[in-house]
UniProtKB/TrEMBL annotation:
It holds the Pfam family HTH_17. It comes from the Bacteria. Residues 37-85 form the Helix-turn-helix domain. This is Helix-turn-helix domain-containing protein. InterPro entries: DNA-bd_dom_put_sf (IPR009061), HTH_17 (IPR041657). Transmembrane segments: none annotated.
Length: 90
């Protein structure tokens, strides 16, 4: 009988952990949905760069787009971080 109670206790712990994981994932997904995005034109305009420069940055992994439909989109927070890093480096 004690093995049965131990098994139930383990299952309850697993359920609690799964609920915590699910809650964390839902919060993260909500934050990502609230994130502002920029398309390639907006990024080029923001940095005042040519599209070949943006393409080179993508190849060099300086900036990484997310594909949304047919468009490359960029997180605004990531773009601002790149700008801040470039100011620190100079």
């Amino acid at each position: 009988m004690t093995k049965f109670f131990k098994l139930i206790n383990i299952l309850l712990n697993v359920e609690t952990l799964l609920q915590q994981i699910l809650t964390t994932l839902n919060k993260q997904q909500e934050l990502e949905q609230e994130e502002e995005w920029m398309d390639a034109y907006e990024v080029r305009d923001f940095f005042k760069i040519h599209r070949s420069t943006l393409y080179r940055w993508q190849c060099e992994k300086i900036i990484e787009p997310s594909r949304m439909g047919r468009k490359n989109m960029y997180r605004k927070s990531h773009i601002q971080r790149i700008l801040e890093q470039s100011h620190r480096d100079t």
